[in-house]
Write a structure and sequence with these properties.
294 residues, alpha/beta, 9-stranded mixed β-sheet, globular
Amino acid sequence: MLRRSLRIPAAGVAYLVTAAMSSSAMASGPEEYADVAVSSGARAGPGTPAAMVIAHRGASRYAPENTLAAVDAAHRRGLIWVENDVQRTKDGRLVVIHDTTLKRTTNAAKLFPGRAPWRVGDFTAAEIARLDAGSWFGKRFAGERVPTLADYLRRLDRNGQRLLLEIKSPKDYPGIEAQVVRELRSHGWLDRDHVRSRLVVQSFSVTTVKTVHALMPQVRTGILGAPDVRKLAAYARFADQINPRMSALSSRWLAAVHRLRGPHGRPLQVYAWDVAKNTNVRSVRARGIEGVIE
């Protein structure tokens, strides 16, 4: 997903962190939010809760995206939900990186000058492990690595954080859905605690989301984008969230989403991304948007 800066007022952050640490409803995960009335004219009063903030690629304003440093930066700021992107190496390892090429966020072009366009799937896990994934962001992050999904899951568990996992470009990695499921299972992320409140799997590919639901129906899933309202009822059979770009939202579309219940019997939720600068998280929640991915 695209990144844009979301400025959260200090009071909003204080509310969010307090809720994340002390509210039993929040601690049970985003599925515990009550259904909301959606109105384009809704205003956020003093008692309006803030939308949940999910750290996009980790706290990517403070540390290089999708690295363990970004996970820790989110943790230090009280953000318990982290979003990431998963792809596969040439030799079949799952790694956490957004772009389908290594050029923008690593030194692959320098280290492997003859390997353009430096596609993730053209490099082995050992080759990717050699790359510097931090210097592009700042000198103090020099030597930060592209983490494997296994390393990422271990760090989230250590920090007590939760994961919104995006399966990236699945058409480039046939069978990646089953592989992600195996990895999650092998690291304990399909036990009752993680499934109930600590894990959501999403993708722009509707087929991938449907496949993930078939493989592990107990896990919550999300479709990225803003599907036509005529498709929503069919998607609600295997998706718990519809997660669009903020600019694609309308009150009518939000109302159509919230009228439906997902495969686990709860109203569909909306986590928006590409959020405009200075957006107030309470105003977002008043519109009927449960979370922002920023």
